[in-house]
Automatic annotation (TrEMBL):
Cross-referenced Gene3D superfamilies: Aldolase class I
Residues where substrate binds: I11, Q12, G13, R26, T90
InterPro entries linked: 7-CO-7-deazaguanine_synth-like, Aldolase_TIM, rSAM, rSAM_sf
Protein name per its UniProtKB record: 7-carboxy-7-deazaguanine synthase
Sequence ranges assigned to domain Radical SAM core in this UniProt record: 17-241
Binding site for Mg(2+): T39
């Protein structure tokens, strides 16, 4: 069985593929506790999962959160009646259920897009053959309880075998030294990997980053990397799921 929070069709609001139509499969569970987390439901065992019946209509059915692989694949594929760019596996941290995902993915009928916090590299190896695009976060130590530099490096080395981009959420508390370390980490794997600097959407009392500071960070990144873009969470100001 696989634990699911919600399944629905919407617009990708973040990163390199912003604006594309995706089926979102939000999996339960996460191995981190970021200060700005906007999906706290993903951390707890929810009683019921919300599963959209018609793509984009928000006609959710409440179903028990534990799905068999075959049943979940059927729900996801039914939303592909409308053309979609890809299926986004998101969370929480999808790789917390990597073994189950590896069984699910061969049954899905659209390209597969993994949104991940970029720390569970051994679990990534289990699903990598099935994944088309990876949106990998680098988590700065100021938003997690400890640094994950080594895990991120191992993860990116594997992810670079696929179409990968890196996303770094920047807050008012981010430090230049940790951002510099993140840029150097990406450059050490491949300086062509696109990097998205995402100004934090202030939640949980999280402090926003000032525009001139963000521009300064982008300038620093561009001395090491070819493609560095600043993109906020667009679905938040559009009011989309
Ligand atoms: S990795 Fe994602 S889901 Fe997990 S705590 Fe951080 S922001 Fe929340």
């Amino acid at each position: 069985m696989i634990n699911i929070v919600e399944v629905f069709s919407s617009i990708q609001g973040e990163g390199l593929y912003v604006g594309t139509r995706q089926v979102f499969v939000r999996l339960a569970g996460c191995n981190l506790a970021c200060t700005y987390c906007d999906t706290p439901n993903s951390h707890h065992t929810v009683k019921n999962a919300l599963v959209e019946r018609t793509p984009g209509k928000r006609d959710f059915a409440q179903l028990p959160m534990q799905f068999s692989i075959d049943n979940l694949a059927r729900h996801i594929n039914s939303l592909l009646a409308v053309p979609h760019h890809s299926i986004s596996l998101t969370g929480g941290e999808p790789l917390c259920q990597a073994k189950m995902i590896a069984e699910l993915l061969p049954q899905l009928k659209a390209p597969l897009y993994l949104e991940t916090n970029g720390t569970l590299f051994q679990q990534l190896a289990l699903v990598l053959p099935y994944i088309d695009i990876i949106s990998m976060d680098i988590k700065l130590p100021t938003v997690t309880d400890k640094p994950y530099w080594q895990e991120h490096k191992e993860f990116l080395l594997l992810a670079a075998r696929k179409n990968v981009f890196v996303k770094i959420v920047v807050t008012g508390k981010s430090q230049q030294t940790e951002l510099q370390q993140a840029f150097e980490l990406v450059a050490s794997v491949d300086h062509h990997i696109p990097v998205i600097l995402q100004p934090v959407t202030p939640v949980n009392g999280c402090e926003a980053v000032l525009p001139d500071v963000l521009l300064f960070y982008q300038e620093k990144a561009l001395t090491l990397l070819n493609d560095v873009r600043v993109i906020p969470q667009t679905h938040k100001f559009m009011g989309y799921l």
